[in-house]
Every structure is written in C-alpha cells, then in structure tokens.
Specification:
single chain, 409 residues, alpha/beta, Lyase, Ornithine Decarboxylase, Chain A, domain 1, TIM Barrel, 2 domains, nine-stranded mixed beta sheet, eight-stranded parallel beta barrel, 12 helices, 20 strands
Length: 409
Amino acid sequence: MDYIKLRKNNLCVENISALSLTKKYKTPFYCYSLSQLKSNFDNFSNSFKSAKPLVCFSVKCNSNLSILKELKKMGSGADVVSAGELLKALRAGINPKKIVFSGVGKTVEEIELAIKKRVLLINMESENEAILINKVSGKMSKTTSVGIRLNPNVTGKTNKKISTGSKEDKFGLNKNDFTILCKKITKMKNLKLEGISVHIGSQITSTKPFKKVLNVINKLINKTKINFKFIDLGGGMGISYSNKEKELNLSQYAEFVKKFIKNKKAKIIFEPGRFIAANTSILISKIIYIKKSNNKNYIILDAGMNDLMRPALYNAHHKIIPLKKNSRSIIGNIEFVGPICESSDKFLSQRNFSKVREGDYVAITNVGAYGISLASNYNTRPIVAEILVNGSKHKLIKKRQSLESLINN
C-alpha cells in the first residue's frame, strides 16, 4: 500500500489521518484511497502496453458505483457476471462495447438484457447455453457476439475455493468439447463466434500457470484454425497479503503475452479485479473488549465476519495495524475476533501487537477486493459505510445501512 501507511506512528490514508475519520464516521467502515486505485490501474495498463489490451475490471470484486465511475474515467471496461453488475457498470457510464458478460449460469432474463444492451461479448460456458442464446437472439431478431470459455485444466495452485481452471471445476469447456462447439456454432444463425475466454482462478502469484494457459490457447487456435477477434485471458493476478507471499512478476507475464500475441490479429482482454482494488482499502474498526483467557488475548472488534468474510470463508490473511502505533507491545498469543456468534468469526492470530486499549482503533488491510462485495446482514447487522479519500479530501460513497430499514424488511 503506497498511499495507506504509517507516518510518525499514525496511520494515514493519503493526506488524512485515519484516526480523524473515526470522529466523523461510525465504525466499522471501509476507507479507500483513490490515488492507490489510479496507481494500480496505471501500473497494470502500462505493464501490458505493448499488447494494447482492453482492461475490463472484475465488478464482482467491488461493485461500489463511485469506484466504478473512477475506473471508467481511467478507461476501464467491465467484466460482469449478473444482471445487477451489468446495470451497475452501465450506470457508472462504462461503454457496453467494453463490457464482457461471464458466468456459468446466466438466466434467460440476463441473456436478454445483455443482448439488449449490446455488450461486447457474452462468454458462454456450455453447448446448452449457446443453444439458448441463439434462441433468445432469434426471438429478438439479433445477431449476438459470443465467446466460448475454455477450461484448460491448468490451476494456479491456490485455495481450492477460488480455483476455476481444473477439469474438476464447473467452469468452461474442455479442449475437445470446445472444438466441437466451435463447429456447431457455425450452424447457429443468430450467433457470431468472436472470442475465446479463459480464467483459471484467483490470487495467483506465479507466472507459470499463465504461461501454461497461453500455450494451451495457442495450440487450440492452431487446431481450430479460427481467427478469433478477441482472446480474453481473464484475471486471477494475485497480490501480497503478507510478508510470506511473493508478488506476481507482472512484467514477466507481460513478456509472455507479448510473445503470444505476435502474428495474431486478436484483441487481448484482461479481467483484473483483486490486482486493481485489493490494496486500495482498509476496514477501520473499534476495539470493544480485550479479553484474556486460556493464555490468549482476544481483541474483540466491532467488525465481524459479516463485514469481511474472506478470513472465515477462505482462511485468508489480512494484516491488522493500529491507527496509532504504540512503542510498547502486547506480548503473547493475540487473536483478533468479531462479535458474530460463530467460532469462525476471527480475523488474525499472531504473537505480539502494539499496545492497545478498549476504545482504540485498528485497520484491517487489503480489503478493497471481495471485502464489501461479500458483506452480508448476518446477525441482522447493517452493511457498513464506504469512504473515498482523495488527497486531503474525503467523501461518503455509500451510506451505512440503517438498522430501521433492515428490521423493516
């Protein structure tokens, strides 16, 4: 995080003290850095500059309308997997010709909407889906541009819950079925096959799986002899959540893509989400209690697993830092937990932490991707607010859900 860091023992988001924000906004709340978002997007785009890709931000990782509007200004398109995400992308002003509609279970209503809005591509994942899209397109007197998602049987060797490229996963078609469907689509009058799509999972920090995928795609293109207009390489690029995790060598991946695209006329599409958004945000939370039990210090926060699901769902690691660092430390086993009535409602276990007291504040880091988008009302708790910082200014980009509106539903 280049724009969210400690300065003289005070955590700052760009030019604003995070502690000062707690006096204006009720905790817990998400706080984003616009400069970090811009820096990440520029870094990604510049790394693949030679390939001139269309960058379609993965809306599922963060669908805040203000965030999407800022990305639109940067030239981003959108990768969507539902009608809601499509409508949000359009509301943000993103050109439909920069939107790809992915997902294994699109409904008739979603297909109709995507066709009506004239998105760039609908990436299909089965022969039955192709038949349905062709039928719907015929009823609407339209010819629909489609891509086929390939399952390359290549994984990023990350958490199984976020792996999508294995032959055991529900996504895409294997190489043989892909080839067969390509031939069948030529007889479907209302479909125009323009793309090949692939996505092998998330939080991948090695370039080796991406290189394997490029080789698989290259062989398949040579076999089918189809000059695809678009080659959608998906996303999946990981970040470093802890000191133990290495960062993805993006420049090396870019070199692989540069070599791959040589002598091809296709337009490359990327669908990054985490790489663009993850380190743009922190979840600021208040310490409610400090409880000592069984040789452990439980630091109980007002943020729970309903506010940030990743640790409970994926055993994900998110570093926690105090808003004001103390020169003294708590020595021993420390566990940061939330108030939810579940044993899995815990964020981090570690030894030693800056000396804190009840009423102090901490920040859970790198929560800009799959943080607020996975939030829920579990335990009948309101969805928290979201704040955007730009230099020395801050603004509310989504209000905290009121308890009254929640209990009336």
